[in-house]
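Follow-up to my post from last week.
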Amino acid sequence: MASIELSGVSRAFGEVKAVSELSLHVADGEFLVLLGPSGAGKTTTLRLVAGLERPDAGRVRMDGHDVTGSLPASRDCAFVFQQYSLYPHLSVFDNLAFPLRSPLRRSEPAEVKRRVEEVAALLHIEAKLARRATELSGGEMQRVAIGRALVRRPRVFLMDEPLSSLDAQLREELRVELRRLQRSTGATVIYVTHDHVEATTMADRIGILERGVLQQLGTPLEVYGDPRTLPVAQRLGSPAINVLPAQWFEGRTPAGTAHVAIRPEDVRLSPEGEAAGFRVIECSLVKHQLVAERQGIEVHARVMLDQPLAPGSPARFGFPAERCLFFDAAGRRLAGAAHPGGL
Ligand SMILES: Nc1ncnc2c1ncn2[C@@H]1O[C@H](COP(=O)(O)OP(=O)(O)OP(=O)(O)O)[C@@H](O)[C@H]1O
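User reply:
Got it. Predicted complex:
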């Protein structure tokens, strides 16, 4: 396996700056997730690492060696795509064996068999080896696609939304399996998604990309709890972080505050709270979720209730100062705490 370093890497397509001055170090054995909306530059970043794109500026290094000008084959990265790109006319065994039989890596038949069976066992598809690829379920096909990347033991795995075409249950199952596999093999992985649940559950570190620019890089907990900008704060968490106008807090916020943000689990439902005047929109005891509205602004709270609150009934919220995050009009995080004792 290998470490990867991008320094000041940029790539534009005409007017579109797909990736701008990206600097990023992925440690050997690290599982790094790139998270961002459509068009953020995630796939382009993977292609730059694989050598399928040349940067307009900056350097790409693997294990400290400059590979900026090297061909994809010499970088030895395995790509797993969203769509399982299997050979339909071949059996699962032959699909898995394919990379080992390429002219570059021609291996002995006994070695091919051993490696294929080993990977099939890891992915729980050993009973399907004789089937044709078309006779598999979606989840099985994606397992084979992942297996095909694993079997040749690349230096780096590049995964581009590999689970997004699967249904929710399978996605969860494979998410756990992929992470287990990565831990047991010590693989270096860059994993692209726009699913924040995947990002927070799988990543050692998450890099948030927006419009080709790396906004923040950190552990899931750092990015979730200590976001540097409002878009980053909004990228993780479901329901999303509440964004409230500073006017609601009557000057009890740091100078320059335009928005006060607070996670649903930090909102208190307090009968004597100061933030009165909300009307309940929705209350789910099962999901521990309460949604209420004031002046057209919705607040989501994660609260434990014994009784549901009827839609339309009044609610009071507490927003503990130490749990609030403050942002200026440009969405930049402001340092400093609010007025002590709540807002
Ligand atoms: N070969 C290309 N030619 C022209 N424009 C491109 C090319 N590849 C990417 N782009 C543009 O670069 C930007 C970044 O694209 P990229 O595919 O890296 O984003 P992404 O974050 O992976 O998006 P998605 O989640 O939709 O896959 C987009 O605006 C895209 O249209």
